[in-house]
Amino acid sequence: MDAYILTLAKFRFKCDIQLVNMALKRSNALQRMEWMQEQLETGAIDIHMPRAHFTRKNTAIGVSNTYEWEPLVLVVPKSDKPNLTNIMLQPFSVEVWSVLVCYLLTKQFVNLVSIMKHHCGRLRAGTLTSRWTGSIAKVATVGVQLTSFLLIEAYLAKITEFLLYCRFRADPQTLEEFFQSDILVVIPEYMDPIVGTFGLVVAANFRTKCVRPEDFSSMPASCCARIHTLPRAEYIIRMAKYFDAELGRKQLYILPEYLKTIPMSYLLGRNFPFKNSFELFILHVYESGLMELYVKAQRNDVAMMERNFYSKGWLTLGDLVPLFMLMAGGSCVSIIAFTLEMFSTRVKRFVGLKY
Q: Which is it for strands 184-186 and 224-229: parallel, antiparallel or unpaired?
């Protein structure tokens, strides 16, 4: 977006642009940013892109008017600790597991009663010999076997789904959960004033988890969380170097809870000759709605590229309603067919006796 604005400004003011590469790396980020500030103060560089959040006062650096506000977010490494024990219980909800346990206990009780009948001769005389008993038992057996088969298939399908996408422990989704985890945060010295504006409790928690860049340079890139603006965080998430090919997933994710919304402005050098004209140009660009359309189109493209899989979760009793309806429908059809057969048999017997 900033490169697009720079291209528009180039044609608007009919000037040549010489780009200066800051060559930022993990080991020299702070030094290069201080060097850029010195270049702006001395007038060696006219404008700094992309937009930045600049809070220092009494400097020779000019700050353009703010027309864009961006949220600060945490880019957090995903958990790599397996969660296989919990996965074995996740496919079914507590209600479904309760129903299954009740069914197994009832089945064991019926088996125990059958064994007692077999060993107690006194109970044999009371055994029911009605033809209805055998028919009902067969229908119940078919229903139980069908339900067991579908539940086993559903369990195996859910286990496969969780092993593919949810085999690791759940990642923090709120700041409170993040502070309870053991994940550290990389906070350079120049970000200390911004962290101090997050609130007393949040700032204290960040200072507890703080890791300075010189210590972070000797650590793996995906071991610590980092504070970025949302566009920068989206760019980092899309980078190929943070994709784990062995696990088939990205190593980082954006914490859904925002930290703060900050103004973003272009930093202007001391001797920038088009300061007033550039600010008017930026104002016209934003008032025309061009940048809003550009940002919206870019976000839509990112959303299309970043199609993530979200697991539906465990199997609940509500998901078993179609199965219960199928069983009820099958039982009704069986009863109707059995009733019609009995009725036709009785009619034939009655007609045979009459004639």
A: parallel
Element (H or E) spanning 49, and its range?
strand 47-52
Token couple for 107: 């089945």
Pairing of the two strands 47-52 and 243-244: unpaired
> Which phi and psi angles does 75 have, rounded to 5°?
-95, 110
Q: How many Å apart are CA 79 and CA 82, to the nearest integer?
A: 8
Q: What is the pTM of this model?
A: 0.55
Contacts of 96 (CB under 8 A, 6+ apart): 314, 315, 316, 317, 320
C-alpha closest to that of 54 among 270, 267, 261: 267
Rg (CA), the chain: 35
Q: Which residues of the chain have pLDDT under 50?
A: 58, 123-129, 305-311
Q: What would the pLDDT profile of 188-236 be if each residue is shown by its tens digit?
A: 887 888 888 888 899 899 999 988 877 877 777 667 888 888 878 887 8
**Single-letter residue type at 108:** Q
Give the span between the Cα atoms of 135 and 170, in whole angstroms.
Answer: 49
* CA neighbor of 41 nearest in space, from 57, 59, 54, 58: 59
- Facing residues of 71 across strands? 261
The encoded tokens of residue 294 equal 């550009």
- Rounded-to-integer distance, Cα 120 and Cα 308, Å: 62
User: H-type helices in the chain, by residue range?
Assistant: 2-13, 29-42, 84-87, 94-119, 131-165, 175-180, 192-196, 200-208, 213-216, 230-238, 275-287, 290-305, 321-354
Inter-residue contact 257 to 174 (CB < 8 Å) = yes
Residues contacting 101, CB < 8 A, separation 6+: none
